[in-house]
Specification:
Helix content is about 45%, strand content about 10%. The chain is mainly α and about 130 residues long. A two-stranded antiparallel sheet has the order 1-2. Strands 3-4 form a two-stranded antiparallel sheet. The protein is globular and about 40 Å long. The two termini are about 25 Å apart.
Length: about 130
């Protein structure tokens, strides 16, 4: 596996590495995702290999864990910062993917969510 630093170098117009995610903890998570075959990496960028719902779960977990959004709604609900993940993986409407899941389910636990939890295990909770 090519080291993450090599993948994010080069022409910035070709690749999108959001500044909010430019830290060692997130790079470690991406490397683990590549090893787990959840993420595909090439010199042209990153591709999510699973469902959009699972990517939304991934984004939500990381956003909340690292405090990417300062918005709070309700009593304790911290908003999810979707844009960095949509930019990194070239997808749209992650929030809608979560909302669609929740129309049919009471908890946001898409198929294989345990793999994301395992991926984030032992990663520092600060950036």
């Amino acid at each position: 596996v090519q080291h993450i630093e090599d993948l994010i170098k080069g022409d910035p117009k070709e690749k999108v590495w959001p500044k909010e995610l430019d830290n060692e903890a997130f790079k470690k998570i991406i490397e683990r995702g590549i090893e787990a075959k959840l993420i595909e990496a090439s010199t042209s960028g990153f591709k999510w290999n699973e469902t959009k719902e699972l990517l939304a779960y991934f984004a939500e977990c990381i956003s909340k864990r690292f405090g990417l959004s300062k918005k709070v709604y309700g009593k304790d609900n911290i908003a999810t910062s979707w844009k960095p993940f949509e930019a990194l993986f070239g997808v749209k409407n992650l929030k809608e993917a979560k909302q669609n899941w929740l129309r049919l389910n009471t908890m946001f636990t898409p198929n294989r969510y345990e793999e994301i939890d395992k991926l984030l295990n032992d990663v520092p909770t600060h950036l």
